[in-house]
Amino acid sequence: MPGSPERDRPDRRGPLARPQPAPVPWWRNRRNLTVGAVGAVVLALCGYLALGSGWGSIRYLTQRCADRVWERGPTEECTGVSDGGFVFGELDDVSASVKKENDRVTRGTLPYVTVALLIPLTTDETDPNRKAAVERQIRHEVQGAHLAQRRVNDRGSPAVRLVLANPGLGSAQYAAVAEELDEMARSKEDNLRAVVGFDMSEENTKKAIKHLTEDLRIPVVGGPITASDLTMPGLARIVPPNEDQAEVLASLPDDDNVFLVEDTRPGDSYVDTLRDAFNAKRPSGALESEQYRSSGGSDDDPSLAGDFENIAQNICQSGAKDIYFAGRPPQLRMLVLELGSQPCARTENSFRVITGSGASTVDSYVKRDELDEWRRALTRVTVEYAAVGHPEAWEKSKAPEAEDARTEMKHLKAAVAGLKDADLEDSRLMTIYDATRTAVTNIRRQAEGGKRIPRLDEVASGWHQLKSVNKIRGTTGWICLDNHGNAFNKAVHRVRLDPKWRPDQKLDFVGVAWPEGKPLDATCTAPRR
Prior knowledge:
Elements: H1 5-8, H2 30-51, H3 58-63, E1 64-66, E2 69-72, E3 77-82, H4 92-106, E4 112-118, H5 128-152, E5 159-166, H6 174-186, E6 192-197, H7 203-215, E7 220-222, E8 235-237, H8 242-249, E9 258-263, H9 269-281, E10 290-292, H10 305-318, E11 322-326, H11 329-341, E12 351-355, H12 371-380, E13 381-387, H13 402-416, H14 428-446, H15 456-460, E14 472-474, E15 477-479, E16 492-502, E17 505-513
Parallel strand pairs: 4-5, 4-6, 6-7, 7-8, 9-10, 9-11, 11-12, 12-13
Antiparallel strand pairs: 1-2, 2-3, 3-5, 13-16, 14-15, 16-17
């Protein structure tokens, strides 16, 4: 239209104007792609260095102790799994022997499986006597596993490679070490098929076993763990639980006036189940227990001195000569010393303390400067407890299992003779020896005569078959597992602290007894409950 603003507006673009090109997407720009790729590589490399654990990473350079062994925890302790090439603690000689046997196995012609010994392999004890004692206990358990390895590798297939797994002080790093074991269980090269060990019935022990058996489906054979609440699928236990020990020990008191001294610290399965087992055996009219609460540490709780002085006075006042003790060795020592020093006319200065297998380590808490006092106390206070085993237990026994136990003990004593600082008296070497042989026996049964490597689930579900003709002929007696993986009517070895307290002999063997009141017979099978 004439005069229309649209028609009168000049065309500012001119005749040669062209449309503006559309913007190029960033992913089509070569420069952007190059910069992005470099950035991604740099970020990945930084992430690997900062968070990874492979070669060249910060963790590898600063926290790696050896293959599968890493510094962990507040003390940066080396924890993990070693085939003997890396030495945990003070285990140089036995680690070297383990490594030598493992190399022989892996270079041989037979198929092999791996079995792991999982126990704390180091100590943070500062007292020289206590430190040496704990190191002896660790050494005995490692020796037990290694001697069992050598024994089973003399014949049979598959062969056994033994690895030492250190979960750290108090088993605090059990989860990380369990992941290492899980990798080995999935590896066609390692073929880990069982974990043996666990020597304390405490909370971390229960958590570790549950994690291995329930979450990772790795079969476990327990060592000297006696808490009655440690039954779970995939776990085999070869020692008499606390309730079975109490069944045997309940026959000892001369009358119904039996005192109970108990630790009330929560979270200790050994103490809790031992207390419950002893309480079940006390008459309804018995006096209420004397209680104390420990710190749970490895020391002897000096702050409890007043408590034990009062406990000793109350026991004397009651006229009780027999005392059930549900506690750990540090406090057992305190009770014995107090009872030994308290004049008590009502009991003619005579007492008997009856307790569970945890007492086997009480010697490590007796200080060098109190040895005379300790020996005097033991002349007044008899300490009798249920041990897992004793080297003299079967020498004169006529029980059906005695001949097999004597035969196996003869083999073990010959093997022990060539080892440094080996000792059978505390039963730890014997227990782990039997536990390792139990694991291997089950693995080989599932291997069809060495024709194949069994699956983890086959091993885990096979524990209940170890009875009757498949029973384990152990140094501690026959091991016959019930349908829950627990040893049925397992022999209880009664021992007594020797008042002479000699360096090479601190125990007197008293006798063998059975929770069912009679020895196992050849069928070696639990009755229907």
